Amino acid sequence: MSFLERFERLFCSLALLVTALVLFINVALRYLFNSSTSWAEELIRYLMVWITFIGASLCVRQSAHIRMDFLLGRFSERTKRAVGRVVFGLSALFCLALTWYGVRLTAFSYRMGQTSPALGIPIWAVYLCVPVGSFMAAWQFARLALGLREDRA
């Protein structure tokens, strides 16, 4: 298991654990003590966004994304591999475009200096998940497109 895969797994696991813990505490406070924290929902929302983008790369690595292969079943193995490489290449290009726009969005929010309402953290730190996760997914799609690793599915 590579360093990047260990990072993806650890990050998603810890973020999901923190999300569940904060959610449990907030629900307990709300229903048992008729009080809740003002920052919990915001933290959970931001963690879920980060989990989504980092998890997308992990899903590419593990071939866990949904795929439509109804038509591919009629082709030879060689054609299936060729079509798969084209699809992976196009997916890598899409993720690179998303990376580019994510960098622009993050830089813009950095220049604006906007902070989140409840936590007071810089919004660019939240938006940073878009270029980071998209680039990591693009890397995995590119490796599949170039045949540097085999698709597990």
Automatic annotation (TrEMBL):
Membrane topology: Multi-pass membrane protein
Biological process, per Gene Ontology: C4-dicarboxylate transport
Annotated localization: Cell inner membrane
Tripartite ATP-independent periplasmic transporters DctQ component domain location: 20-144
A Pfam family it matches: DctQ
Superkingdom of source: Bacteria
Coiled coil: none
Annotated Gene Ontology cellular component terms: plasma membrane
Alphabetical keyword list: Cell inner membrane, Cell membrane, Membrane, Transmembrane, Transmembrane helix, Transport
InterPro entries, per the entry: DctQ (IPR055348), TRAP_DctQ (IPR007387)
Transmembrane segments: 12-31, 43-61, 82-101, 121-142
Molecular function GO terms recorded: transmembrane transporter activity
Predominant location category: membrane
Family: Belongs to the TRAP transporter small permease family.
Protein name as catalogued: TRAP-type C4-dicarboxylate transport system, small permease component
Organism of derivation: Jonquetella anthropi DSM 22815
